[in-house]
Amino acid sequence: MPEDRNYVQPTVMADRGSLHLETRYNYEAQETGSVWLGVNFGGEGTISWAFTPMVGGVVGAPRALRLA
Prior knowledge:
The protein is an all-beta fold. The chain has no helices and six strands.
């Protein structure tokens, strides 16, 4: 958007076996960070599928999380 400021939104993910770890910055809102832990599920056949339920937490600037 023309009047918005530029920012970086890094997301780092790592998988080891079925364990999934993820960290994000500026994803949920600007100036917030989050950490996520999940388990990978998937299958192959006629249709391949993948599913990763995750639980995590967000810290940072809750003022940026306003609902319209």
